Amino acid sequence: MRLILLGPPGAGKGTQASFLADKFGLVKVSSGDILRSAVRSGSKLGEEANKYMSVGKLIPDRIIIDLILDRVSSGECDSGFLLDGFPRTKEQAVALTASGIDVDSVIEIQVSDEVIVSRMSGRLFHPASGRTYHVSSNPPLISGKDDVTGESLVVREDDKASTVRNRLDIYHEQTTQILSYYRDASSGSNHKVFSVDGSMSISAVSSAIESFLKP
Q1: Residue 152 DSSP one-character state
Q2: Where are the alpha helices (DSSP H) in the chain?
Q3: How far apart are CA 129 and CA 199, in angstroms?
Q4: Number of domains present in the structure of the chain
Q5: Residue 188 has what pLDDT?
Q6: Most buried residue, 70, 112, 196, 204, by most Cβ within 10 Å?
């Protein structure tokens, strides 16, 4: 089984990716994890990627594509894989198909922008420990203070409402093109595309995806 999992930031994609990997015995291939691993290993691609990451620039498609293709072409992924965080653009999707590595299903977790903004902009973070809270679903015992140390909590830049909305705009623009590509028979592949309501409970989302993937 070869899957692609799509979803906006804050949709619970990471939770569902872990569920699918465990349930179906798949290797979870995360672009973020691969990038960090390549940088740590000091590989040629890792060094090249780090030149962009170290100055806050976007990493070119060709580097991401090469890293992903190296991983999914390895024997480790022969029993199946799940792509998490790739492809992010239509160009990356085309490159994946052109490489001869086809996928069986593309799953999109759909959550409204308002729900995503509420989920993410309500998050609070304790920088020293990494503990996270949420103003409504997981509030600290004392407003704005870490439960353990009593130190002030912060809102990360990525979690500010304006930043979240900008990320969502980019996500929608890119994902619309990716889904259209996989639905288009001219892509040369027979993909099944499935959308699931990510505002349901975690277990309900998992059950819906599992039902879709069963023969």
Answers
A1: B
A2: 13-24, 31-41, 44-53, 61-72, 90-98, 113-121, 161-183, 202-213
A3: 29
A4: 1
A5: 56
A6: 196
In a domain, 128, yes or no: no
Residues designated as active site = 13, 88, 123, 156, 167
Count CA within 13 A, CB hemisphere, residue 166.
7
The whole-angstrom separation of Cα 16 and Cα 28 is: 11
**CATH code of 182's domain:** 3.40.50.300
Contact of 119 with 13, CB cutoff 8 Å: no
The model's pLDDT over 1-48, given as tens digits with 9 standing for 90+, comes to 999 999 998 888 888 999 999 999 999 988 778 888 888 888 888 888
Helix, strand or coil for residue 174?
A: helix
The answer to whether residues 82 and 27 touch, using CB atoms and an 8 Å cutoff, is yes
pTM listed for this prediction: 0.81
